[in-house]
Amino acid sequence: MKKIIVTLATVAAVISAKAQKVEFEEYDLSNGMHVILHQDKSAPVVVTSVMYHVGAKDEQPDRTGMAHFFEHLLFEGTKNIKKGDWFKIVSSNGGRNNANTTDDRTYYYEIFPSNNLELGLWMESERLLHPIIKQDGVDTQNEVVKEEKRLRVDNQPYSRILENVKKHMFKKHPYKGTTIGKMKHLDAATLDEFLAFNKKFYVPNNATLVVAGDIKIKEAKKLIKEYFGRIPRGKDVVKDFPKEEPITQQINAKAYDPNIQIPAMIAAYRTPSMKTRDSRVLDMISSYLSTGKSSVLYKKLVDKKKMALAVQAVNLSQEDYGTYALFGIPLGKVELNNLLKEIDEEIVKIQNELISEKDFQKLQNQFENRFVSSNSSVEGIASSLATYNMLYGDTNLINTEIDIFRSITREDIRNVAKKYLNPNQRLVMEYLPEQKK
Asked: Residue limits of the Peptidase M16 C-terminal domain (predicted)?
């Protein structure tokens, strides 16, 4: 046993040694835009990215889907970029680009050869300063979003699980909705409402600009000031979301999916913000339970007892709250309640016994490896810098968050499991095939 532990510790040390500190510089423009610069000359590429502090939780209850809709709409064109030309400009200059939306933020980025830094900055400043938001663009993107919903949600098996979990977990907080929203809300939205959404949230003081890669810092600063410094500051965005009451009794629910033939079981617990230490401990617990074929739940329920086709534990951590979910698909005639009982046994073990030193060291190795991997590309670094700044309020977590994980003990794992993963604090949902009429 000692030999194994020593070997694992050595592996962790090697992984840690490979993790180089991410150097960056950050400052604010006079209009409130936060700027982060990271120089990496290992490859002749540059990332220009902007993260806006607007997501699905910022929408009106009767206008869901707006944040995700804007992820599409703001590629329509600008005063100086013709409709349909955005992607042509990027690809013709050797680049690629994309965007994504969550409940908490929206992120846009371009990756160019480093000699096109100015082009990337100009395009993102155009998105912010001169967007063209007209009815024809709204109508076009409405159909795009509807098609995306049909492909990713309406016709995908098990795709509505999170939607059904969230509406039970959150009664007051807007996390109870979905990122893609309801199509009837987008259909009902007027052009003036789209314009108002843009005016409120797409302002420099609600954004973080990251420029990373093969750059000259002095030159980058000059270009950033030229393209972004003249953009007017918007009104401050005030966020004041309602707080949820603790869950004190088990919630039992059922949901139906026309795209599945095999039912599933979900147990979900409301957990604290991703900014908390406890959330990181829950990340470790989920890895212990279900990361890889050697994990506790896989070995027990899929490999040995052959009770499950799939089993997973995941900590869905977000800015305001998290949702810790246990998920299983039974094998054969195994009943859902028996599958949950087997999973609960492993939760109780974590709550009452310290996990082994061997398993604990394995967890530490996994998180060291994730840390190194997340900073292995300039694209990943740019995203992490923006995220840590905007959602955590500490850009340097890109270097120090691993220290939080390193400080977690086996006792912490036991205590956090006791604190949050109890039957009276959860939703238990049977996710069933939709019955044919």
From this structure: 189-366
